[in-house]
Specification:
Elements lengths: L13 E5 L5 H13 L4 E5 L1 H11 L7 H15 L9 E4 L18 E6 L1 H9 L5 H11 L4 E5 L6 H12 L3 E2 L13 H16 L20
Parallel strand pairs: 1-2, 1-4, 2-3, 4-5, 5-6
Helix pairs in contact: 1-7, 4-5, 4-6
The structure holds flavin mononucleotide.
Length: 223
């Protein structure tokens, strides 16, 4: 397998979690990009994410890692155009707090939570570490690794805002699932790709999921 690490930062896997906020497709699109481009991924979904995935895109996602892995790979293969090396995907069970990513001694290149529910954001902000997602995020924070959360809620109450501010103050990158339209998307896939691409930018992954302002096209709108 040809490795395509773009810097030393990516010699370790990236942790990707999907929680029960709306927008399962964003997390799956980022996962597709990472696997298609030969990056290793530690993957975990919450119980609520499984429910939302079924509601939103009719995708059945088991909480059993072995089954979940097959379901996710099958979905990605139906969407993608490139082959995926299955060995790059490590799937964990939501409550498996003995998973490798539960420990700071297991090195990762950071973690992205896409989408991040307000429940999970509140739990991370209060440090409960009561499931693998909140624990792995807590590990990133204590080890000073990159943590990107992609909230999706509207409108926001004061508790949401306070939790987001608290996380931002300790270095978490808050990247709301807010698609721009200045790249003139022509379909839903292009809207999804915009959000996925912005998240990938935050980690420094090289991609062409969207046209860049005043670089790739004669875009007329202002952002
Ligand atoms: C269809 C559906 C859509 C939801 N959308 C959101 C959302 O956009 N943002 C959010 O914070 N919670 C949303 N929720 C509620 C969360 O799933 C719920 O708070 C859950 O407890 C979060 O658990 P988790 O953080 O462990 O995934 C949604 C629930 C359902 C069933």
């Amino acid at each position: 397998m040809k490795e395509q690490f773009i810097s030393d930062d990516f010699k370790f896997p990236v942790t990707l979690a999907i929680t029960g906020a709306s927008g399962t497709v964003y997390g799956l699109r980022v996962l597709q990009f990472l696997l298609e481009n030969n990056y290793r991924v530690e993957f975990v979904i919450s119980e609520s994410a499984s429910k939302v995935a079924l509601d939103e895109i009719g995708l059945i996602l088991s909480l059993s890692p072995a089954i979940l892995k097959e379901q996710v790979l099958s979905y990605l293969e139906s969407k993608g155009k490139k082959n995926i090396n299955k060995n790059l995907l490590n799937v964990w069970e939501f409550n498996d707090i003995s998973a490798s990513i539960s420990s700071g001694s297991y090195r990762t290149s950071g973690m992205m939570i896409i989408p991040a529910s307000m429940g999970t954001i509140g739990a991370i902000a209060s440090g409960t570490s009561d499931n693998l997602i909140t624990r792995a995020a807590d590990v990133c924070l204590k080890e000073r690794r990159k943590l990107v959360v992609v909230p999706r809620e509207m409108p926001l109450n004061t508790i949401h805002l306070e939790n987001l501010l608290k996380l931002s103050k300790i270095g978490t990158i808050i990247a709301p699932a807010c698609p721009g339209f200045y790249h003139r998307p022509e379909n839903l896939d292009e809207v999804i790709d915009f959000v996925a691409g912005k998240i990938l930018d935050l980690f420094g992954f090289d991609h062409n999921l969207f046209k860049r302002w005043k670089v790739d096209s004669n875009l007329l709108a202002v952002n």
